[in-house]
Design a protein that fits this description.
single chain, 187 residues, mainly alpha, Arp2/3 complex 21 kDa subunit ARPC3, two-stranded antiparallel sheet, 6 helices
């Protein structure tokens, strides 16, 4: 009995690592894509796999995927200086989505809350702080400069994360149920 638990834990850990690696790769690739709406606002897609890792795999994997996606994106395609604060913000995205959605049934309300809290914590607070430190300006100047973009991006993020989380949940559930059916058949 104990041996079966160890095998199951090992398989689950290996599967989580595999999903994490795939989500990191997707995040790095999506880091190249951006959709400019105007000179100040652009939609970026790199945080989508980070959020997925958080709500499907939990806070540890969500944070790790966020941090590694940020670091590898910088290595592959540097845009300015590397600053560890942005790595922390990316990791927190995975953790925030995990706190609201991991091991919970899909809910648009939880998705909306996770999106709004993530925007407030990472975009409004931390990223403004990192920009003020990086460019030696005041927090309020960085905040005011980013305020219009952040206000526009909250509803966009809610829409994107709602669609992606709904689809991801259904795919992950289907995948999990087919794996458990296959496992039961082999024993």
């Amino acid at each position: 009995m104990e041996e079966n638990k160890k095998k199951a834990l090992y398989k689950r850990s290996l599967l989580s690592l595999t999903y994490s690696a795939m989500l990191i790769a997707i995040g790095v690739i999506l880091g190249f894509l951006k959709l400019p709406l105007n000179p100040l606002v652009e939609i970026r897609f790199q945080s989508i796999p980070v959020a997925i890792s958080g709500f499907l795999l939990g806070p540890f994997y969500g944070g790790a995927v966020g941090a590694l996606t940020d670091i590898l994106s910088y290595i592959v395609h540097p845009t300015g200086e590397f600053f560890p604060g942005f790595t922390l913000s990316s990791a927190l995205t995975g953790v925030i989505f995990a706190l609201f959605m991991y091991k919970k049934p899909f809910s648009f309300v939880r998705t909306i809350l996770a999106s709004v809290i993530n925007s407030l914590v990472t975009s409004f607070l931390l990223n403004c702080l990192w920009l003020s430190v990086l460019y030696n300006t005041t927090f309020s100047a960085a905040f005011m400069m980013r305020l219009p973009k952040n206000l526009i991006m909250i509803p966009v993020d809610i829409i994107i994360f709602s669609i992606v989380s709904k689809i991801s949940y259904s795919i992950y559930r289907r995948s999990s149920s087919s794996r458990s059916d296959t496992t039961e058949q082999t024993h």
